[in-house]
UniProtKB/TrEMBL annotation, chain A:
InterPro entries: Beta-prop_EIPR1-like (IPR059104), PEX7 (IPR044536), WD40/YVTN_repeat-like_dom_sf (IPR015943), WD40_PAC1 (IPR020472), WD40_repeat_CS (IPR019775), WD40_repeat_dom_sf (IPR036322), WD40_rpt (IPR001680). WD repeats lie at residues 68-95, 99-141, 142-184, 185-227, 229-263. The lineage of its organism: Eukaryota, Viridiplantae, Chlorophyta, core chlorophytes, Trebouxiophyceae. One of its GO terms (molecular function) is peroxisome matrix targeting signal-2 binding. Belongs to the WD repeat peroxin-7 family. It comes from [Myrmecia] bisecta. One of its GO terms (cellular component) is peroxisomal matrix. This is Peroxin-7. One of its GO terms (biological process) is protein import into peroxisome matrix. PANTHER family: PEROXISOMAL TARGETING SIGNAL 2 RECEPTOR. The keyword Transport applies.
Automatic annotation (TrEMBL), chain B:
GO terms for molecular function: acetyl-CoA C-acyltransferase activity. Its EC number is 2.3.1.16. This is acetyl-CoA C-acyltransferase. The lineage of its organism: Eukaryota, Viridiplantae, Chlorophyta, core chlorophytes, Trebouxiophyceae. Pathway: Lipid metabolism; fatty acid metabolism.
Length: 315, 470
């Protein structure tokens, strides 16, 4: 299924509560200058239908659904703010909140699935902040990276643990109970743009980099990657573990492709290659509610939702 | 941030995002790992790209062998039945590759002149004589002069379709024992169709038609015929065609004494070294007064057999067999029956297009010389460099055992490509077909793209597995 956004897509996220509900964060002029718009779409028999849209003054780089309330979602904004939206509330009531603390663009945002009031933001001001949706200020700031932080993701099994990926080429693992990061991996020789935890093995992470590769790491033996997946011909923008299978990983890249990999078979890992985007493919998500359903967003101003066994262009 | 202003911010953002697109050397690990990529066309964008992607599902040729081609009624095989010739190449293929006969999924044999049902039976007999068990099926295919190539293409298609993974595409013809003939009457309805009538034209007449229509003169044709003999003789003398030949032991009746002899046929006996255009110019035309087609500038009537063993690359790697070539594409197209010789000029571009290539990418051609007239026309029409066409001589010197020719040319082409190395990456087998058709197939040299390694370095173990006992 296809939806055209007026701006360039940056992120796409399936609602964890409602089947077929999708949030899409977009930015005007490729996010370099101009406005942003947060779309909420619903899959139906007519395809993807917009149920809500919120405009922002600056571009939106990421978005994330609340794990607590099915109507709440947050967006990472280019002006350093984090916007909280209520899909049910009237337009003039939105944004419900705006957290303005980051000094530069907020590039990623991630909600804690266990402690459902908490979420993380990662920013180009080199810091990561911890937020409580009900607190007026951030609860903590994590500042160790020396360049833009591009991603911060909670561990699905440990509510206090998260991983961050940065343009300083490192990946750090953090524990809220400790002041400093608990592990720092010099993961790639070039900027690391994305990371994710395996949903079935709480020690395994995936990283994607400007060096075009995806690496799989085991935090118990961080000296060397477990596997390297090669194939993307430009920087890997997002990498995600499947919520339904331990060894399945999806990725999207500046090479405009979306790929599906099986990390358990590293020498024959590539399962699927989709080239439905005609510009950088930068947004990607697995549906947790419908197995095999994927969504992607790109700078070509399209959002695609498709089953992994079909061609995104077919539907 | 507020102090920076919007233009400054846009510039900074652009800078950070541009860093994401930094050209990066592939990580060192990439060098030691082969990775597969999906390609829309079977041969990649164009040969100018050095392609590293080789698919395990590629259909590859691991063996292509032929008997010597001998003159009908006079040559070494004049008393040898078709089944014996076919059995000889089948046996040699199994022996040289070590493939067990029960692994063959099908034997497809191109054959033209043999009586249809009887020839199918003879081919089955040949398989038994060659040591195949009863479980291996056999069939024949008849697309006139391209039957041998059609057999190879049929096997490649069946492997692609997944019907089996290993198959033999063959060709056999005894023009000594099965001369050209027409049985029964002609359908009177052809009176209404010029094309249908033209199907009945003798091939020589179609050659005269091509020569007349496209202005191919006698001297050009004789020159080409002489060159064919010269090249074939040179290849024979230097032993260049030895690798593709299977010597065959057979009985031969001495025409003078009537005595039966056991002989070993190990060379093409139609080749006449020292043939000059001047000698050929003396010959009388056969089909038309003041015509141009003579016995000297037409293909010879011959006997012979050839066999091409195809399988998936996966299977070839498993068996550790060297890949001689990759079957890339095949096309058969129809043309005006009155000028059937123009077939290759239409079929070659079709096959090249199917492979995702351009004509410039092709380094070698086996373009069957049914007649010097049509072969010259096709080369001219396509603008082919004569140094790339029939470099070891063609049917004018070697002979044209109809059903065998396609498989024979495949063997000649692939062995020559292997000898030429990377200077010959893509090759074509093509021929014209009686009743107005052309066929062509594109092959890629095996060694060129065959970078898939069976052996890869074992990655260093960074940690013990969970199962390991310390």
């Amino acid at each position: 299924m296809l939806f055209r956004t007026p701006f360039n897509g940056y992120a796409v996220k399936f609602s964890p509560f409602e089947e077929g509900r999708i949030a899409v964060a977009t930015s005007q002029n490729f996010g370099i200058i101009g406005n942003g718009r947060q779309h909420v779409l619903q899959m139906g028999p007519q395809g993807l239908v917009e149920v809500a849209a919120f405009d922002t003054k600056d571009g939106l780089y990421d978005c994330c659904w609340s794990e607590e309330n099915e109507n709440i979602l947050v967006s990472a904004c280019g002006d350093g703010s984090i916007k909280v939206w209520d899909v049910q509330a009237p337009a003039q009531a939105n944004p419900l909140r705006s957290f303005q603390e980051h000094q530069r663009e907020v590039y990623a945002i991630n909600w804690n699935v266990t402690r459902r009031n908490l979420f993380l933001s990662a920013s180009w001001d080199d810091s990561i902040k911890l937020w409580d949706i009900n607190a007026p200020q951030s609860l903590a700031t994590f500042k160790e990276h020396t360049y833009c932080v591009y991603a911060a993701v909670w561990n699905p099994a440990h509510a206090d643990v998260f991983v961050s990926a940065s343009g300083d080429c490192s990946v750090k693992v953090w524990d809220l109970r400790q002041q400093r990061s608990t592990l720092s991996i010099a993961a790639h020789n070039y900027e690391v743009l994305c990371t994710d935890w395996c949903k079935y093995n709480d020690c395994v992470i995936a990283t994607g980099s400007v060096d075009k590769s995806i690496k799989i790491w085991d935090v118990r033996s961080p000296t060397r990657e477990v596997t390297t997946l090669l194939g993307h011909t430009y920087a890997v923008r997002r990498v995600l573990f499947s919520p339904h299978a331990e060894s399945i990983v999806a990725s999207c890249s500046y090479d405009m492709t979306v790929r599906l990999w099986d990390v358990a078979a590293p020498e024959d890992a590539l399962l699927r290659l989709w080239d439905h985007h005609t510009e950088f493919a930068v947004g990607l998500d697995f549906s947790t509610l419908t197995e095999g359903l994927l969504a992607s967003a790109g700078w070509d101003e399209t959002v695609h939702v498709w089953n992994q066994n079909t061609d995104p262009r077919a539907a | 941030m507020a102090s920076q202003g919007v233009p400054q911010r846009a510039q900074d953002r652009q800078k950070i995002l541009l860093e994401h697109l930094r050209p990066v050397e592939a990580p060192a690990a990439a060098m030691s790992q082969s990775h597969l990529e999906a390609n829309d066309c079977s041969a990649g964008d164009s040969s100018s790209y050095e392609r590293r992607a080789a698919s395990l599902d590629d259909v590859v040729v691991v063996s292509a062998l032929r008997t010597p081609i001998t003159k009908a009624k006079r040559g070494g095989f004049k008393d040898t039945p078709a089944d014996d010739m076919l059995a000889a190449v089948l046996k040699a293929t199994l022996q040289r590759t070590g493939v067990e006969p029960e692994a063959i999924g099908d034997i497809v044999v191109g054959s033209v002149l043999g009586p249809s049902s009887q020839r199918a039976n003879e081919c089955r007999i040949a398989a038994f004589l060659a040591g195949f068990p009863e479980t291996v099926p056999v069939r024949t295919v008849n697309r006139q002069c391209s039957s041998g190539l059609q057999a190879v293409a049929d096997v490649a298609a069946a492997i692609k379709a997944g019907f089996y993974t290993v198959g033999l595409g063959c060709g056999v013809e005894s023009m000594s024992l099965n001369p050209m003939a027409w049985e029964g009457g002609v359908n009177p309805k052809i009176a209404n169709s010029k094309d249908a009538q033209n199907c009945l034209l003798p091939m020589g007449v179609t050659s005269e038609n091509v020569a007349a229509k496209f202005g191919i003169d006698r001297a050009t044709q004789d020159k080409m015929a002489a060159r064919s003999h010269a090249r074939a003789a040179a290849a024979q003398a230097s032993g260049r065609v030895k690798d593709e030949l299977v010597p065959v032991e057979t009985t031969w009746k001495d025409p003078k004494t009537g005595e039966e002899k056991q002989i070993v046929v190990d060379r093409d006996d139609g080749v006449r070294p020292g043939t000059t255009p001047q000698q050929l110019a003396q010959l009388k035309t056969v089909f038309k007064k003041d015509g141009t087609t003579t016995a000297g500038n037409s293909s010879q009537i011959s006997d012979g057999a050839a066999a091409v063993l195809l399988m998936t690359r996966r299977e070839a790697l498993r068996r550790n067999l060297p890949v001689l070539g990759i079957f890339r594409s095949f096309a058969a197209v129809g043309v005006d029956p009155a000028i059937m010789g123009v077939g290759p000029a239409v079929a070659i571009p079709a096959a090249v297009k199917q492979a995702g290539l351009t004509l410039d990418d092709i380094d070698l051609f086996e373009l069957n010389e049914a007649f010097a007239s049509q072969a010259t026309y096709c080369c001219k029409k396509l603008g082919l460099d004569e140094e790339k066409v029939n470099v070891n001589g063609g049917a004018i010197a070697i002979g044209h055992p109809l059903g065998c020719t396609g498989a024979r040319c495949t063997a000649t082409l692939l062995h020559e490509m292997m000898k030429r190395g990377s200077s010959a990456r893509f090759g074509i087998v093509s021929m014209c077909i009686g009743s107005g058709m052309g066929a062509a197939a594109v092959f890629e040299r095996g060694g060129e793209t065959d970078n898939l390694r069976n052996v890869r370095p074992v990655p260093k173990q960074a940690h013990l597995s969970r199962d390991a006992a310390v």
